[in-house]
Design a protein that fits this description.
about 210 residues, alpha/beta, Rossmann fold, 7 strands, about 35% helix, rRNA processing, S-adenosyl-L-methionine, transferase
Length: about 210
């Protein structure tokens, strides 16, 4: 099965309809990751089929659960999940926050080549980033611990109802129990990624106050 068909089948399994142009840009993004990966080690995966499943479809699988129009992707790395979300939702404004210089350079290049007018790159540590206004959703798939995520990124959500969204593998029972106040779990969604047997969950966290 070629990548074009695999992507189309994956999107269909997610119940997602994206224009052909958007699907082509997603595959262009995959090609960029593979090209830069040879030098910059953006991901441990090299096979295009696995990058498609474990990165692109994994990112898009959470789309229906992400509220708002102003999104921050914290510790964006190779642009995941921010770039797939920005491609799928051109009306959103997506900020990719990445402190690693080489990865931030890749993100800038991806923004240019993919013509992502709705994407902004911020090469700064999350705890030092002080945006003029808060975000509807602050998302990450890079943080290993939920407590660290809310401590370092909690200030980025807008005060009147912003959400922290953490992409996790298995259900994080212990991490949820250690979540510091005033942050509380609003919901935990089980996410099914087409072609992936592993568990995926999306933890939605609110500021209670």
């Amino acid at each position: 099965m070629n990548l074009t068909t695999q992507l189309a089948d994956g999107l269909a399994a997610l119940g997602m309809a994206l224009p052909d142009e958007t699907q082509a840009r997603l595959l262009q993004y995959l090609a960029l990751i593979r090209k830069w990966n040879r030098v910059h080690n953006l991901t441990a995966m090299h096979e295009p089929e696995m990058i498609l499943i474990r990165h692109l479809l994994d990112s898009l699988a959470i789309l229906s659960h992400v509220p708002g129009f102003r999104i921050a992707d914290v510790g964006s790395g190779a642009g995941l999940p921010g770039i797939p979300l920005a491609l799928a939702r051109p009306e959103w404004h997506v900020v990719l926050l990445e402190s690693n210089h080489k990865k931030a350079v890749f993100l800038q290049q991806a923004r240019i080549e993919l013509e992502l007018k709705n994407v902004e790159i911020v090469a700064e540590r999350v705890e030092n980033f002080r945006p003029a206004s808060g975000f509807d959703t602050v998302i990450s798939r890079a943080f290993s611990d939920l407590a660290d995520f809310v401590k370092l990124a909690g200030h980025l959500v807008r005060e009147d109802g912003g959400t922290l969204a953490a992409m996790k593998g298995v259900y994080p029972h212990e991490e949820l129990a250690q979540l510091p106040r005033p942050f509380v779990v609003e919901n935990v969604f089980t996410v099914a990624v087409p072609g992936l047997e592993a568990e995926r969950h999306l933890v939605m966290i609110k500021h209670e106050g």
